[in-house]
Amino acid sequence: MTSRLSWLICCIICFGGSILFAVELDESPARPGEWGYHPGHKKDVAVNPPSFVWRPQKGLTWEIQCASEGHFDVPICHVQDLKWSVFCSDKPLSPGTYTWRYRGKDSQGHRTPWSRIRQFQVASDARLMPMPARAELISRIPSQHPRLFLRPENQAQLRALAKGAMTSEYQDLVKTCERILKNPPDTTEPPLYPKSIQRGSDAWRKIWWGNRTYTSTALNQAAILAFTRLLGGPEAYGHKAKEILMACALWDPKGSTGYRYNDEAGMPYNYYFSRTYSFVNDLLSEKEKKVCRNVMCVRGTEMYQHLCPNHLWKPYSSHSNRAWHFLGEVGIAFLGEIPEAEDWVWFAMNVFYNVYPVWSDDDGGWHEGVSYWSSYQNRFTWWADVMREAMGINAFDKPYYAQAGYYAMYLTPPGKTGAGLGDLNAKKTASHNRGIMSTFAVQAQNPYWQWYVDQLGGVKSEGHYIGFMRGSLPKVMSKLPKDLPSSRLFEGIGQAYLNTQILDAKESVQIVFKSSPFGTQSHGYEANNAFLLWGYGERLLIRSGYRDSYGSDHHKNWMWSTRSVNSITANGQGQKRRDDQARGRITAFQTTPEIDVVSGEAGSAYESPLECFTRSIIFVKPDLMIVYDQLQSPTATSFEYWLHAQDKIKVMDQHHIKVKKGKVSCDINFLYPSQLTFSQTDQYDPNPRERITLREWHLQALTASPEESMEIVALYRIHREGQAVPQKATLDQVSEGYILTAKTLNGQVTALLPRNFSSRLKAGALETQGNIRVEFISKSGKTCLVKLDGINQ
């Protein structure tokens, strides 16, 4: 603050003979929900050139410099008068070390001081993805229609495909169009909410979602008709599309389908209207075009004012993460026809290059879970198609999109039921991903992803005009992923997927572990250091609850609670709910064909923070999971260990606990501490709405007495019914930690589990200081050693 005041009060600049007082520069760190400064100081960048993002300030334009190791007197990049606090260059950088800084200028020409200098590194293997300059980008968009999904010059080629190699797909479009002509959609403007209606009630939801479905049906059918006519279909298709378009153009743009009034109806109105307008443009009179432009000027402006510039710094709003590229479609369709349309396109491209995607790092995961991943990414792939055709931009040049398909492959291998963490995933099957992975495989031309699609039944087309366009892309040959590791860490979302293999879930054991830097926010709300367990196609240890309605009492107070997952509470308290500050982190990860080990830290995520909650999982494939928990609290604390299953858990004593589902079981043995007290119920707290009859079982193990520090060591043995599973295990407790030995189906494992980073442990020739170390000796005499560097640091 002293530094800021000194600049504000004392700093005077001499410029052009005038004395100007400097404007204060707000360099405060990113707060919850904010994107933050990019590139961060001393960070490696995965994309070349990098995206530069900094804190916006109202009333300022921006100047940015990038230089080689601080030589700002000869900057490599120097740009002034930027409208937004983001920038991506149209020229890549040579590999090396760089620094960057920025400053602002107000409307009177008064400048802020330069920002702090941040350093970053460009590696030689960073993916090249320069952002075309504005004029160049806009010039690539066709001046004539159609502009969305196809270009005018490609129309003849598509017509030839419709008559030749893609006749079957074309005939499907014709059949759809004939059905529409026989039963055209209602185009009466949908209703407003009654004044007395309660937001969130069932009656409100019926109108809210009903208007979305109604709007999508009418305008998407118009788009299908118009597109099919472009392929050589009857003129009647185009005229019916025009009729529907013009009827919907009469709806109040700020009424029941207005973006701010009901964005679930407003968004599809805007993109389906824009597509139809572009597909049927040659049939519209100038008067009709003007009506359409006037309508979309209002609707586009409303979206733009809501999104820009806020979304460039606060990009985590769920609905806005669809809206920005829908606005881009509107901008392309009406470029040169609505004066503001160019701004809409440029804004959308700045979002794509600088602040998207938001729920992941470059490694391809998705914090909000598979359901929201597939839903939002499926919509994004429309924009990927539009960018490729209209502007020659390949979305899959981005590191994230080069990895995104592996998220589904590792989390939901073929044959799996249950899609891990995040909203609406409990019973999702691998087949749920067939559509989005079909798209990703062809757009990225990735053979492994195509193999995955083939295992799920082959390519699933989105159908209609989008499916036809994707069918015209080059085919992808599949490749068996036998050369890929069976387990994978998605560090950006703090999730590790430990598999015995990824070819068939019904022949595999899987552990999902979470400790996330995204915290417990949004739709990926589960607590950190939680795990899930599958065995041979069965859900053994689960995330419990049922989202009866978003934000319901049960959803908020059970599913958002640490009690609902396989984790630990302290004095009955869990981690902060739906909070991006309730963060965990995966501190170490190793994978080998025989053993996987992962560790996470989540102590600071708790409502009353713990000094430490380190959970380490050792997976000796395929039958043994060792879970080692280290807990430290500022005061004496009772800890509650939670496990959840679909059926009642059999508890004889703490060494003999059985979870069973179908013909698969998991035997659980709490080796340490002793005198645990168990309780079990099939009731939630609170229960879901009465219409939900689902019940699951919740087992709580309570430690004997309050302690400031606690270690818990538990064994989980996964096996099929009738399979003889070794039970022998010993745990030697010494002052420095624990020495565990256990028999497995394939050999014997020894694990050194130190108490802290200074602890030294030794068992025969095996020794360690501070880090977990595991030795597995197979029955054939082969030895596998894993040392988990970084544990407890």
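[next item in queue]
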Amino acid sequence: MVYPLLIHMKSRNYVEDVYWVSLNPTAPSVMLYKGIKLISVKVDETSLKGYGVVKEHLWKLFHGAADQSIPQLTELAWHDEYAYFNLYNRVCAETLLELDKTEDLDLFYIHDFQQLPTGYMLNNLKPKVFRWHIPFDEKVIPPDWEPFLTKFLNAYDVIIVSCRTYLNSLIKRGYKGKAYHIYPYIDFKEYRRPARTEIEHFCERFGINDDDFVVLLVARLDPLKGHDIAVKALAQLVKKFPRLKLVFVGNGSFSSSSKGLGLDKASSWKRIVSELASALGVSNRVVFTGHLPQDMLDAAYERCDVFILPSRAEGFGLVVAEAWLHEKPVIVSSAAGISEIVEHGKNGLIVNPSNVDEVVRAIEYLIRNEHARKEMGVLGRKAVEILSIERGLREEAEVLKMVVEGFP
């Protein structure tokens, strides 16, 4: 989301200069791309690994997936990894403050949960905006974390979240500043309907036959994305529908990458899901494509019959919007933020990801009802308009303008 937002704001003269500061240990220190100055934050390998451990702890916490590996808040400050996490945020803050000295910035726009302490460390009077992308559900956040969160959250003048429910939770957890809800967005022009030959090439590459009924899941390989839920549903359906095929598109994230934090989540999760498919006797009906370039991704969306996102927790789920752009029927987890704009039975189906039988029934309903698939695809294409970058750009620009000019 950040890149298209900056590109559009720059091209439409909403902003004069843009400086993008981000963690990138292998990139040049400074780069210029399409008028955006990219500044890479680098920390040593030990600090990077420690930061990655705490980032993973926080990720699990806010997704409701905390386990015994996550220390209590009272213990966290005594862990070396937490010191490295703070060091990373301190380096980010110092980089921004040095940039402000030379460029006299109008505002700081900080993105996502791992940067939460950065605003607190920016000890100047310039306005600070925070964009929270992952779930913010006060029901899954331990009460003893409230002082930790409010300390850092209230360092920001404005916080923007992705869903209405997150906005309510933010206020309940003690945030006192200005809070806004803006749905995430995509640039529709980045997606296109592929030619038949491109679809045929995709199918040939991944062994998809003309008579296969394809259920597509596009997500990084992570337990929270629910690949195993989809495999269990497949195992129940394949006897009735032997041509059913499940296609997983996606690999790891920066956290999983060997060139990133090296947490190895992607490969271990793929192994677990593959072993599950083998144990359930459906290995030959499950396809892992890995990462796909945009043209192949468009072909995957176009070829599928149904799109599914069975996430156990999902900050939003823009892949559903991508499927809607291709007029595909969608099955969406009730734990995904985008479920707020899914009208059950009209532009998609909403399922409880913890209930595999419910997922099975949703897939079977769409297999048996071609008319429903087409109707949901058409209505989904209409619903996706609310997620256009043009709408998002207007709303983001309005908020940033108020911040810079001062609130009424």
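[queue empty]
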